[in-house]
Write a structure and sequence with these properties.
By secondary structure, this protein is an alpha/beta fold. Helix content is about 35%, strand content about 10%. The protein is built from 8 helices and 6 strands. Strands 3-2-1-4-6-5 form a 6-stranded mixed sheet, with helices on both faces. The chain starts with 10 loop residues before the first helix and ends in a 47-residue tail after the last helix.
């Protein structure tokens, strides 16, 4: 049952709730963390997914069948990513919500010039990811991500439950303590959908112009914005 008091809590009270839950749930399993989230926030909770895989969406659907899964269609995705989204929507007990930027790629090119992702990737991410997500999350109190501490040094301190200061929301990372081996084992056990690009040398899948295959010995995020000194799109900064 949803704790309706979350709709009445102030940002300060929600931040305190997130901090306490982060401490208490640090060693809880991913299903336990998601049960807490769905019991606490109900329909004011959603999962965000880049459609690299559907692990968190699958976990959340077991705690809250029909859970909202928010996907950002930037207009620059690989066809395999769109195909994964469509497959998730077709076979899983989730409600996929696709968010799009206010401008199409052509409209953005007309205003900012072609290839903004090469000239100013931070602005491109802001226009095509950060702003649409901020608008799309407006009706939710809490959101879940697939962030893991082992993905890169910038994610090493990710809390399982934390406070998203930028958006004033509770941010839940139920598989933060998982390793890639844990993900692979869950996928194999439950037959969870994954992006085909993961079998083609891509360890992390983002927009096509800014994503390459990783080299041996590189961390999972090395193929994102390679050579640009950029490690995050701004969604998790």
């Amino acid at each position: 049952m949803t704790d309706t008091r979350t709709e009445e809590r102030t940002a300060g009270e929600l931040e305190e709730l997130a901090g306490r839950a982060g401490r208490e749930l640090e060693h809880a399993s991913a299903p336990e963390i998601l049960r807490w989230a769905t019991d606490t926030f109900g329909k004011r909770f959603c999962v965000t997914s880049s459609m690299e895989d559907a692990v968190v969406a699958h976990l959340a659907s077991r705690a809250l069948p029909g859970v909202d899964v928010v996907f950002l269609d930037t207009g620059y995705h690989f066809p395999e990513t769109i195909g994964t989204r469509d497959a998730v929507e077709a076979v899983m007990d989730v409600n996929v919500i696709t968010l799009t930027p206010r401008q199409s790629v052509a409209e953005q090119d007309a205003e900012h010039g072609p290839g903004l992702h090469d000239r100013d990737p931070d602005l491109c991410c802001k226009l095509r990811k950060v702003k649409p997500l901020e608008e799309g999350l407006s009706s939710y109190t809490a959101w879940a991500t697939g962030l893991r501490r082992d993905e890169s040094p910038t994610r090493a301190n990710t809390p399982v439950v934390g406070w998203d200061e930028k958006r004033q929301k509770v941010k839940i990372s139920p598989i933060a303590r998982w390793t890639q081996d844990d993900v692979d084992a869950y996928v194999a056990e439950h037959g969870v959908l994954t992006n085909p690009l993961l079998m083609d040398g891509y360890a992390s899948v983002g927009c096509a112009p800014c994503t390459r295959r990783v080299l041996e010995g590189e961390d999972a995020r090395a193929g994102r914005w390679a050579g640009r000194g950029k490690t995050e799109c701004g969604l998790h900064d």
